[in-house]
Amino acid sequence: MSPRANCQNLLYATLVVCVIFFQSCVLNLPAVRQYSKSTIAASHSFEKIANDIPQSCVRGVEIGSKGKKIKISNEVKADGKVDYDESYKSRLEICDDLRRSLDGILAVNVVLMSYAEALGKLASNDVITFSAELNSLKVTLNDVKINNKLVFDKKQLSAVFNLTEILSRIAADGYRQKELQATIAMAGDYIGDLTNGLIFIVDEYKLILEDEKNDIKIYQNSLIREMRKLQENVKSSKLEKEAIEEMLFDTKKRIDAINKKTTASDGFKKVLKNITDKHDLLSQSAKSKELDSVLLLKIMQGYVDELIPAINDSEKAF
Amino acid sequence: MAQLTPQQLRQIKLALQKSAQELIQYQAEHDTELSDKEFDKLGDNIRDLTDRSRSISAQSIQGAADEIAESVQKIQEATNKVNQAIKTITNIRRGIRIATALVSLGTAITAGNPGGVISAARVVLNEVT
Fold this sequence. Notes:
The complex is a heterodimer of chains A (318) and B (129).
Chain A: H1 3-21, H2 29-66, H3 86-101, H4 103-123, H5 131-142, E1 145-146, E2 149-150, H6 154-187, H7 191-232, H8 238-287, H9 293-317
Helix pairs in contact in A: 1-9, 2-3, 2-4, 2-7, 2-8, 4-7, 5-6, 6-8, 6-9, 7-8
Chain B: H1 6-29, H2 36-67, H3 69-110, H4 114-128
Helix pairs in contact in B: 1-2, 3-4
């Protein structure tokens, strides 16, 4: 191949890539994929926090009711009914209200997760690769015969399909860059509201854990009172006192567990803030009128490097 | 009367929790002075405050989701746009598969291969439906 022909091919390849990417800002696709991965993981964690809200309520009601020695036996009577104290039942109904109240915010979480999944899928390289399908078509065309003679020259077919695969990938890349850019720019104005909504719920969770702590403390106070009475009563046994001590120890463990959850929630809020910031950066990049020239040149160079040998092979084959 | 915002409900919850915590501390500090009846009554008051605090949470959680409903709708629209783009690219892939299936069918017909025609026709049908 002459140097003049090589230069010409380089020019064609560069022009093709330029035309396809001309109207796009170039998004940092690894950053989009990273945002997708982080957000999906955060959404799963949020679901666990939200599900613990009614459970914290039930735990609190059960232990708080022990402080009054409310009958919370679930012994089944002859008529099949279970005997619960009325005040205990009405406290548990509030836990059901809490469970129902979460439907809306859990749906918000699903929307956020679906958005992140969709972005991740479109930003993945699998979505713009057609090699398997094109190879299959090439192999099928290779076998086409008329009067027992092969219709297509193998070398020419290979050269054409090589070029087609690269061009279709460039075209699909240009298309998906444009779509991602438009979508992320649009979503940028609203994502903050969703993550702030989730952060609000995490803060609410911390407060609900405080309610559970208050119920534990009601029980602790009643245990301490009982222990005092046992100590004042010379007839009380060592076993009785040890039983109270064990129950007190259990309440302290429960409070420790709540404190750990509270600390973990603070950490999770930072994660949510971080992924909001990541999306803000992507959104600013998507809205920016200036092309990210370094990134664009890198992508274009990559495609041009692929196109040149494919164009050369085509020329040789024909 | 206008509904309270989640932020306003939170302030009420914090006030209820503060009252509950003050009563818990009072109950602990005055244990020896309180009769059993007074002690139990205090316990009931604390439970009542805690129950109200939880009810407030249920309202503010609901309110938080309602407040952002419009933004959620916009993000759903953005997701639909992305899924449409994925579908468009997937349709290109499907188009190539249909072309492959049609070439196979044509080859089988030209070769006069009935078995080949039937299996190739089945592949075409699978791709287009």
